[in-house]
Structures are given as C-alpha cells and as structure tokens.
C-alpha cells in the first residue's frame, strides 16, 4: 500500500496540467501522483499520456463534479494518506513532508492544509484557504489571512501550526480512513464549501483538522468557476445553508437557520447593487433550491455521528465584527 497519493481532479484543464503538473511530479517524489479525469472533452488525457507516463491516470466516463469525482477516485485508491490537490496549484519543494508529519504525530489528526497563497499575487494569502479556515456562529466561513473580501499580505503573522475548523479543498491532506468514515465529500454540494462540510463531520467524530504553514503552495483560484460568475454565488449560498442544516447541533438550529436566511436576503440586495442583479437572483434561487432539498438534507443530518461538539469554531458573528465594528483582519476579529 502506498503511503500517500496526490490526487488531482481534472476537467478540461489541459493548460493547468501543462503549467503545474511537472512541479507536482518533481516535488511529490517518492509519493504517487494520480490525475483523475472527470470526462474531459479537451486533450487533457492525450497530454498526460504523452508527457507524463509516470503519473497514474484514472478516467471517468461522466463528470461526477468536484465532490463526486474525488469520492469515486478515493474509493479506488488504497494509500494511507491522500492529498486532494486542485489542478491550478503551484507546489513548492518539500511541500508534503511538513504536513504529513502533522498528520502522523497524532491519529486523531484527520486532515490538514499548507499555507495557501495567491499565485497571481504571491505576497498575499489566497481567498480559498489562507492559513486555515474557521466558521462563525452562523456558519459564515473565513480564514486566517482572509475575511470576506479583505485579503492580507503574508508577513509571517500566521506561521504557527494549529488546529483550525476547516482545511481548504484546494490542497487538502487527509487520512483516507477518516475521510471514508466521515462519508467523504457531499456529492449534492457538487462544488464549493464541500470541504467545510467534511471537516465539520470530522470534528463531530472526534477528529482534528490543522494548518501547517511550514509548507506553502500557490493557488490560482477560480480555475473551474470564476468568482464573477453567478453560479458561484448560487453554490456558495445554497451550500452554506445545507452545511448548517446538516451539522448545526441541537436546538441552536431553530434560531440560527432563520437568522442566517434573513441575512442572506440582505446580502442579495447588496450583491444586486454591487455585483449585478444576476448575483442577487442567484441567492434567491439558492434559497429556493435549498427549500426543495430540505427533507433530503434533514435525513442526512440524522445519519451524522456526533461524538463531540468540541472544535475551534468561532463563537462570534463575523458579519457584525466585519461590517459594523470594522474588524477586517483575522487577528482583530479573534481579540
């Protein structure tokens, strides 16, 4: 059995593979690199076969989405540890050992991420991960280094290895057994926030999630769906509600979910005026589809095992701290 497999999910990403795969292969040795093709219609498969015979290629006849594609692949991979790595990520020398060491120090450690910086602006953190992710009391996500759209410059202010609430799906190290025990990524999410849902279930099971800034990678971001696309807005808001319904403990859900939905309606007004009407409508569409899927999500909630409620979740309301109190940085919010 392999110790670790680096798993890259690809869909029509020939350009990213050509740009980033050589360094992934070079800097991941002696570990296995697997490219999972999610029914691409470009020449991705031909490119890999011709240029990277050392890479294990898995081909699917249909597009399972981000979550389904990884679940299918990981069910076929038998390594002790897996790394879910986006195709638009630049890895660096020695990027695996520090994070793997964190996972191996304690069997309760189920997932971890490196420090994630912006490929387009390498002095700054990247939106989807930064130096580890957190969730506030209404399940709004933020990171060390990124709160809403305020992205900090990396000045080594978040260089400590520590437990976090969630690790980014753009570069997610995981203990395969724990991944499978938690049920993998929720395929109904399709994409966006599915890693937060997974990490929440890992914490419920008594596992831990961490960030290891001794390792650094650079993420392009928006490689599959650009942030300016209303579809991204739709997925983030729909999945944010599903995330809360599935995982929020006990009677807290009774007041938190309605309050979150009201705040989303206010966000729809903001998005409509600042990003365009299509984004505001995407939020209302997300709420409508969330309502239609309420029963199925509630059934999932009943299957989730909750051995503990302990986690490093943020107890405050990030919207209030950010917009009302003007606390734009993680270091200010947690004071």
Task: Walk me through the structure.
With 335 residues, this protein is an alpha/beta fold. The chain has a domain at 4-219: Spore Coat Polysaccharide Biosynthesis Protein SpsA, Chain A (Alpha-Beta Complex). It has twelve helices and 14 strands. The strands form three sheets. Strands 1, 2, 3, 4, 5, 6, 7, 12, 13 and 14 form a ten-stranded mixed beta sheet that branches. Helix 6 (194-204) runs parallel beside helix 7 (230-247), helix 7 packs parallel to helix 9 (277-292) and helix 7 (230-247) packs across helix 10. The longest helix has 23 residues, at 252-274.
**How big is the Rg?**
19 Å
Q: Would you tell me which CATH topology of one domain applies?
A: Spore Coat Polysaccharide Biosynthesis Protein SpsA, Chain A
Assigned CATH superfamily of one domain: Spore Coat Polysaccharide Biosynthesis Protein SpsA, Chain A
What is the CATH architecture annotation of one domain?
Answer: Alpha-Beta Complex
H/E order of the elements? EHEHEHEEHEEEEEEEEHHEHHHHHH
Mean pLDDT: 94
Low-confidence stretches: none
Give me the count of strands: 14
Determine the number of helices (DSSP H or I, runs of at least 4 residues).
Answer: 12
Structural class: alpha/beta
End-to-end distance, in Å?
A: 45 Å
